[in-house]
């Protein structure tokens, strides 16, 4: 009889052409097959099984885990050079709008671009803000000072926000000069990209 599965595999005897109908018995063979099939069904489980040892139940528990899942990704790009000598933050003319699917979601923001400052010792600052120019945590003021003239510097800013809404939310990149000298976002050299990634909390 198939009594060991699923704790361990059963060893079932297969009849041979020389066996009589009574050795092993015909009914015992059917019983072994029935027991093995029922044990296998119990282990796999029916759809929406409540049996905690079944595979269907365990898979359903894994599928129900939502924390940390990426729910959506929105991207904006910019290929136009942006120049400023302002020592106050100005818009970099790149923004992305995302509509969270849940008010509990976190939005990760990634802004990648290249910048040039024209001379050694010049500094530029960048930030990621919401539409009202409130800086987002992690990218309030990212500063880079050029070590030599005419360098093009690749840069990536990363920030996290918890907008606590399911309404459309806009984020944008901003930049400024640290010493009133021209600084440029050289998007024609490396396309500026701003990503908004919704992550389930």
Description:
This protein has 201 residues and is mainly beta. It folds into two domains: 1-65, no CATH class; 70-199, Jelly Rolls (Sandwich). It has helices spanning 26-44, 55-63; strands spanning 70-78, 82-84, 90-98, 106-116, 123-130, 142-145, 152-161, 169-177, 183-185, 192-199. It is elongated and about 100 Å long. The chain starts with 25 loop residues before the first helix and ends with a strand.
Give the helix/strand layout.
Elements: H1 26-44, H2 55-63, E1 70-78, E2 82-84, E3 90-98, E4 106-116, E5 123-130, E6 142-145, E7 152-161, E8 169-177, E9 183-185, E10 192-199
Antiparallel strand pairs: 1-10, 2-9, 3-8, 4-7, 4-9, 4-10, 5-6, 5-8
Supply the key terms.
four-stranded antiparallel beta sheet; six-stranded antiparallel beta sheet; single chain; Jelly Rolls; 201 residues; mainly beta
- Please give the domain count: 2
User: What is the overall pLDDT average?
Assistant: 88
User: Residue ranges: pLDDT <50 for 5 or more in a row?
Assistant: none
The quaternary organization reads as single chain
Cα-to-Cα separation, first versus last residue: 49 Å
CATH architecture group name of the largest domain: Sandwich
Number of strands: 10
Classification by helices and strands: mainly beta
CATH topology (fold) name of the largest domain: Jelly Rolls
CA radius of gyration is 31 Å
Estimate the strand proportion. Answer: 35-45%
Helix fraction by DSSP (H/I, runs of at least 4): 10-25%
CATH class label of the largest domain = Mainly Beta
Q: Would you list the SSEs in sequence order as H and E? A: HHEEEEEEEEEE
Shape descriptor: elongated
């Amino acid at each position: 009889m198939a009594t060991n599965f699923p704790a361990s595999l059963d060893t079932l005897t297969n009849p041979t052409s020389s066996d009589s109908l009574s050795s092993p018995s015909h009914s015992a063979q059917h019983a072994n097959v029935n027991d093995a099939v029922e044990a296998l069904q119990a282990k796999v489980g029916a759809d929406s099984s409540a049996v905690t040892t079944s595979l269907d139940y365990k898979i359903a528990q894994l599928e129900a885990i939502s924390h940390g899942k990426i729910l959506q990704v929105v991207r904006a790009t910019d290929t136009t050079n942006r120049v400023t000598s302002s020592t106050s933050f100005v818009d970099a003319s790149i923004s992305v709008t995302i509509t969270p699917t849940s008010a509990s979601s976190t939005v990760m923001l990634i802004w990648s671009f290249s910048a040039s400052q024209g001379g050694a010792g010049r500094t530029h600052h960048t930030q990621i803000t919401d539409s009202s120019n409130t800086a987002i945590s992690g990218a309030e003021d990212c500063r880079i000072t050029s070590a030599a003239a005419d360098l093009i510097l690749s840069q990536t800013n990363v920030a996290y926000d918890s907008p606590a809404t399911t309404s459309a939310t806009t984020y944008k990149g901003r930049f400024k000069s640290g010493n009133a000298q021209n600084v440029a976002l050289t998007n024609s050299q490396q396309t500026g990209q701003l990503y908004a990634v919704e992550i389930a909390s």
